[in-house]
Structure formats: structure tokens, C-alpha cells
Amino acid sequence: MAKPQLGNEEKDAVCKVIDSGMIANGAVVAEFEKRFAAYVGAKHGIATTSGTTALEVALRAFGIGPGDKVLTTPFSFIATANSIVYTGATPVFADIDPATYNMDPEKAEQVLQSTPGIRAILVVHLFGRSCEMDAFVALAKKYGVLLVEDCAQCHGATWRGQKTGSFGDAACFSFYPTKNMATGEGGMVLTDSDETEKACRMLINHGMETRYYHDIVGYNYRMTNIAAAIGLCQLDKLPRMNERRRVAAGYYDAHIRNDLVVTPQPDAGHVYHQYTMRVIGGRRDVFIEYLTAKQIGHGVFYPLTIPEQKCYAAFNFQTAYPAADLLKTQVVSLPVHPGLTDAEIREVAETVNTFSGA
Ligand SMILES: *Cc1c(COP(=O)(O)O)cnc(C)c1O
Fold it and tell me: Which of 22, 165, 246, 316 could form a disulfide with 40 if both were Cys (CB 3.0 to 4.6 A apart)?
């Protein structure tokens, strides 16, 4: 399902860092922050240890904490909601649009109207497809709340030609090896605000601006030069890697023909972190057994909604989200990573097409 594209470029870059003796946080991280922020179209980048810590730091930088609520999607990786919980704030959820798998702006507005105390909207561009950002930018403005983008799955994706990660007050990326680009573990916060950048840097560096003068209780969430060296190489490759994902997805769109399968709605700015289809007629689990037998890689993202996860039992969240509840029983993701050969892509599509439902 994933195969990070690591080669001699990354090896050479890592060796150079090792030879320099400066293996922890330093000039290579600064270069990666600068280049990645420029690529997305943001003023500042603050590299972190993971996408999860990037999200936590961004929310904390805005002072979000106990008593606050953050509106997000029930259909994402758990880290999205965990980052809210870490700050002491409470997640509230708005159901998704089943056509896009992303938070539905109309449902988001209903929740904004009916729920006092929401300080921020945390949108997730799930599977590499942008949320409807004109709607979310307008909602944030109308209700006077912050807009933060979880970009862990959408490096290089666009909404109406503008890159995801450049719409919100902050955007948070992950560079985990399954994502569209990798540094091992790693993440980054992007922001245009000088003040937010400063707050993020304090938080990731034990709350200090001047060495050993700690103004707040911070963390060690700093990225290493080793990780950043890999990230710089991966950033160079990102457009090609995303193009290869689009080729595979385009092939699936054009060739998958099965009455039990609904392929994802195409979108011009999609970068296909996952190619996630729906298997209807209650046949999803049979389809998974079939793919397993045929030795075709696959994944279910995600089998449970976030509010119904056991780890949140004590929150007593509302757990009925009809669209997310349906999707969790229908979704299957096919291999779409840039390491696939043309023959493998064909084989995946043919295998889907010969599924009879039995
Ligand atoms: C991967 C992911 C994260 C967390 O990133 P890590 O680098 O694994 O901590 C957050 N949100 C979403 C949507 C993700 O897919």
C-alpha cells in the first residue's frame, strides 16, 4: 500500500549531514522549512517531530486549551482529534459529504450555529483531496473562528488552483513514510503570521528564545537535520511522485467497471494519498477477503469514526454521523503509490472488475 521513494539522493544527503557532525536541529532544517513553505505558498515553516506534534503545536500557539471547542471531521486518522484533546480543548464534529469524504461545509455551519465555544475549525483534506476551501474560509470569517488545515495527506494538492495549506491561519503536514513525501518521522506547521511562527518555535523548543531562559513550559518537538535532508530530496521529487499517483488513479477511474463499486469523485487538485472507493450492497468485507485471496494490497481507512473510538468513551460524544457511519462500512483503498508498475496498476483494476460479489 505504500513504498517510500528513497534513493541515492536521500542517501547522499544523509551522509553529508553525518559528515558535517551537525545531526540534530540546524541549518538543514531551516533550509527545509524555507523551501517547503515557499512550495506551498506560506511565509513561515516550523518543522516538528511529526504531523501529530505539528497539529498540537499549531493549536497551542493560538492559545486553544481547556474550555475551548474545535470543530473537525468524524472521519479521519485519530491524530486529528487527539491533537485537540492534548491541548485540553474538546473536539466537536460535523458529518462528511459522502461524495468527497471531507467535512460538509453546510453541516459544519449547523454545528457552528448551535454550539457555543468553538474557537477553531480543523479541516482535513482526506486522502489527498482538498476540502471546499472557499466555503470554509467564509465560515471561519463569518463565525470569527480560526481555520487550521490538517494537510497530512495532501502535499501538493490544490483547491481551485491554490495549494492546500495556504488557506488557513495555520496548516500542519506529516512526513511519515506512507504519506506523499517522507522524512521518516516528521511534520511541519505553516503560517503567514509572524506571531504564530514565534509561538510555534517557543513551543517546540522548551519555551525558550534565549538559551536557558524558559518563558513557557514547552516541548522538544524539533526535527533533525537528518530528517530534513531527506525532506529536501523528497520535496524535489514530490511533483513527479504526485503525478505518478494521478496516473494510477486516472487508470482506475477509466478502467474500473463493476456495479458493486463506486470510484472516488475525480477532482483536478487531487493528489491521491489514497485511492478510496466504495463497495456497495453490503459487499465490502467480502471484497476485502477477495482482494486478500488475490494478493492485492488494500486498506480500510477508517473502520470506525473518531467519536466512537474506545479511547474517547469518557467524552460521551454524539456518535451518530450518518454519512461517516455509512462510509466506514463501504470504503476500501487500493494501491496508488508511486512505486507501482503499469502492470501492477492494470492487475489491480482487472482484479476489481472480476469481483462478482460472491
Ligand atoms: C498521518 C496523519 C496525521 C499524523 O501524522 P504523524 O506524522 O503520523 O504524526 C494527522 N492527520 C492525518 C489526517 C494523518 O493522515
Answer: 165
